[in-house]
From TrEMBL:
SUPFAM superfamilies, sorted: Carbohydrate phosphatase
Protein name as annotated: Fructose-1,6-bisphosphatase
EC nos: 3.1.3.11
Any one GO molecular function term: fructose 1,6-bisphosphate 1-phosphatase activity
Catalysis performed (reactions): beta-D-fructose 1,6-bisphosphate + H2O = beta-D-fructose 6-phosphate + phosphate
GO biological process terms, semicolon-separated: fructose 1,6-bisphosphate metabolic process; fructose 6-phosphate metabolic process; fructose metabolic process; gluconeogenesis; sucrose biosynthetic process
Amino acid sequence: MTDHHKTNIMTLTRYVLEQQRIHPEASGDLTIAMNGVQVGCKFVETCVRKARLVNLVGLAGNTNVQGEDQKKLDVLSNEMFVNALMASGKFSFMVSEEVDDIVVVPEELRGKYCITFDPLDGSSNIDAGVNVGTIFGIWRLPSGPKATVDEILVPGSEIIAGGYCMYGSSCNLVLTFGNNRVEGFTLDPALGEFILTHPNIRIPPRGKIYSVNEGNSLYWDAATKAYFDSIKFPSPESGLKPYSARYIGSMVADVHRTLLYGGVFAYPSDRKSRSGKLRILYESFPMAFITEQAGGKATTGIQRVLDLVPKHIHDRCPIFLGGTEDIADVEKAFASNTSWLNETQK
Ligand code: FDP
């Protein structure tokens, strides 16, 4: 038989079921939980595609807890995810970028996980049709459905699943359950299924691209400046060529490219934003987990991102993520530019 029409495809559901089979102790709850995530992603994908046609672009008229204007699609995407995840019966708590407080699931629908998510990340790009995405992280609650909210603010290293879905020229869902494996799936719109297209994504140890909002460089500390100077104006001894710049301003798209092509993505702290911009629970933790599982590293400059413990659900942190050699250079820049602390405190 020819391979023109593949008949034995690895769908996301089949992949998750196979993972369940490999782990005989698995109860199947995570498979059902992931089904809720898939439904949310497919629903948002269809709305992003038709946003311009059915007047879903523009502002909703509200501001979220972080003082950002909510777009119509932000609000809608959040509702889609909350409903799909709640219906799965596998989550007790949800933390969403779009909701000020923890979403506590009604008792009859509670399960043993907590999920944190940004339903539509990069939404300032929506009206221009630029890539946006959903980011999510899943945690097991030690006390299961009886858990209390204090079980949410734990170190990032306790995350058990992380992923993102990118709504771009195609719809890509990238997922890890740990075990040093990151898998990429592409939505086949005709089938309505995510198909495994990027098995075992590995981030190259050294890349040639840097991705950062250079418009903030006036406010950067000495370590951040020194690092970016070192890859833009490399010393002859380093043997490096100047890196290329690529910045979409949509974390999902910038991280996706960094995973596939290598390099470094950063949102550092600066004198305007002392903790950077990206939120720990639903942006930095899942992306740091994915990067590490793909063989890379994620740091704040001085600390592994997954070692952080947030104090509040919407806390932020600086982040540099990428290949091991690239991030080693970032860590070196921070170790040898110790004035960074004074500078960001000015
Ligand atoms: P957005 O504000 O458009 O939602 O955290 C949100 C985020 O986008 C990230 O997706 C993106 O990486 C970053 O902010 C872009 O921020 P700047 O506009 O400050 O560069």
